Amino acid sequence: MQLLTLLLAVSTTTSTVPADSATAGNASYRRDDLSFVDDLETGDLCDSAHGGFAYFDETGTELPWQSQIDFANREGGTRTFNDNREDNDSFQEASCMSPVGLWEGGVYQHSAWLDATISLKRSGFWWWETTWLDVDYYIFDACCTGTMSAQLTNIPSGKDYDLKVWKMWDGPNVSTSDLNFNQPFNQSINSGNANETLTLAVTPGTYFFCVYPKNKDTNLSNYDEDNPYHLYIEETVDVTRPYSSYSISQGKLNGDRGALWISDYAPLGHTPVTLSNDQARVQIINYDTYPFIRHLADKYNGTTAINYAVLYVWDVPLRASISQLAGELYDLVNDCASWEANQAKQASIDFNRDNLVVALSGYAVSYISLAVTGPAGLALAALGFAVSTIGLVLAEAGYLLAYQSQPTFTTTKTDLLNYLVSVQQTFAVGQGSNNNEVKILRFRYRFDNSSGHYLDWSPFYKSTDYNFYNDNIITWQIEDSGIDGTVRGIQSLNDVKSLLGD
């Protein structure tokens, strides 16, 4: 008789996946083998090619899924399928099927499946033993705006399992304790072992699914520890919604001077505008009870950042204005003799219609004029730009440079100078510059899990950033963002401010 070995670990996929890993606290995320271990959750990550267990023959060859079931049924015995995700019996202990930002085969993962059983649970012994029926909770992080479908199939003969789903809303205080089993977002409760199907509109966030027996009686007729059910969940992007993609060539014909991509998700509801002049570094108090933010924090921490907004600029006067102001800010910071290179200080750059006000440790140290007659305006005039347009582009450039720098952030002089010189060089114009060149400015956030858990909106310089955008189409899904977004053309300061939520 052929020997079958039960492997209690999720196998790796054959997809080409970029190797990357990050660790934080008691959680780890490795994209190269698609395993995800989180001490706040139960079991391993499932992916679109494997369930939570797999049978192998003596040669080490994995059997196809249906063959695994057929072989296991022929082998007989009890507990043929050991469910490695137990005890995932509550919202707090749910097993993660797909964490936000999982990269698979060149796109962010949009589907996952697994196989598991409903079993009889026991506690205590002898006269003091109590029994109850298993329920299985799963987490699926949606990264898009669109639809999500879930199919519960292969329900064992004679059993009646149902399927429920809940959405966890975003916010700084949300918790799994807010969820109620009797108040699902949607549910499928067909009779007998008929398939259960759910379809719902989704936006980025954590969704909980629960597979449970309709009858809670511990009679053997209500559970099956030998034959697994099959759960498949898939999200589909709504590519027909407004602003899901943008043509740069068409935007130029419409008079757009640039475009702005905005993520569909603001972490914990925060953006630089909502933080205003408060701290750019915000403590996360619901890390343990909010899977979506926890998964983001475990992946995008330290020097790994996620894009919230990306500015694409081809208008030469606007490019020149951003470059000129970044250069003046660089000179101002560099000339601050009392600030040593590696000394950390609190800084902010605030925008008003007339000036950029630079403050260190809460005190305004200087300002940069945005007037046509100011140094930046005169420099732009010397480059040959029309005086009638200089005031407008300086205001736009000033707002963009201050957008992520208005909340007070902690930085060293060296780090801030590196950020400013990168912006200055990216948007610099010279002889031959034209609107066929598209330059990029990114507004990003990241997390710090070194001592507690924090969300950080500080301006962030990354030496590997590329400066040019060479494609004509900008879509809902961009590099360095595990969450989808929308993209619109911009023609004025009001366009920029309205899109960024100001």
Q: Could you characterize the architecture of this molecule?
A:
This protein is α+β, with helices and mostly antiparallel strands and 502 residues long. Helices cover 19% and strands 33% of the residues. The protein has helices at 65-75, 248-253, 272-275, 291-299, 316-334, 375-382, 387-403, 413-426, 493-499; strands at residues 5-7, 21-24, 27-30, 35-38, 54-56, 95-98, 103-104, 107-108, 111-118, 120-123, 130-133, 136-142, 146-153, 161-167, 186-188, 196-202, 205-213, 224-237, 245-247, 258-263, 281-283, 306-313, 344-351, 355-360, 363-369, 409-412, 439-448, 454-456, 473-475, 485-490. It has a six-stranded antiparallel beta sheet. A five-stranded mixed beta sheet has the order 6-12-17-14-15, with no helix packed on it. The radius of gyration is 27 Å and the shape is elongated.
- Ends: how far apart? 70 Å
Kindly provide the radius of gyration, computed on alpha-carbon positions and rounded to a whole number of angstroms: 27 Å
Average pLDDT taken over every residue: 80
Helix content: 10-25%
Number of strands: 30
How many strands, what sense, and barrel or not for the largest sheet? 6 strands, antiparallel
Number of domains: 2
Give the amount of beta strand, in percent: 25-35%
Strand order of the largest sheet: 21-28-27-22-20-30
Principal-axes geometry comes out as elongated
Task: State the helix count.
Answer: 9
Give the low-pLDDT segments.
Answer: 1-60, 65-82
| Helix-and-strand structural type | alpha+beta
